[in-house]
Amino acid sequence: MRRAPRLTLPCRSEYLQSTWEKAYQDHRKKVRDAQPLVDTHAPLFLSHFHLNLKKLKLEEDRLSVIDRDNRLLLEKVACIMRTRGQTDSRDDYTHRSRKLY
């Protein structure tokens, strides 16, 4: 253990010198035994902050829309496969002339 250095200010009074040394030794002991004042523990876990019910509901709705769209596409593909993918190539569009003003 390191010995504390003696005070550099010599004093004529032995009593005053010993009082200063005792105060200094007490100070050194307090510094050595000091406990940290910063709280380094993890914060409290509040489940209602981490479980976002609104977000879960929106995600569920989004997934149900995707499932519905996938089912409709599957029905359309199945219909095309049943009818052998025949398309009619008739063009019923009548061309109209544009009026110029």
From TrEMBL:
Entry-linked Pfam families: Hmw_CFAP97
InterPro entries per the UniProt record, alphabetical: CFAP97D1/2, Hmw/CFAP97
Family, as annotated: Belongs to the CFAP97 family.
Name of this protein: CFAP97 domain containing 2
Natural source organism: Pipistrellus kuhlii
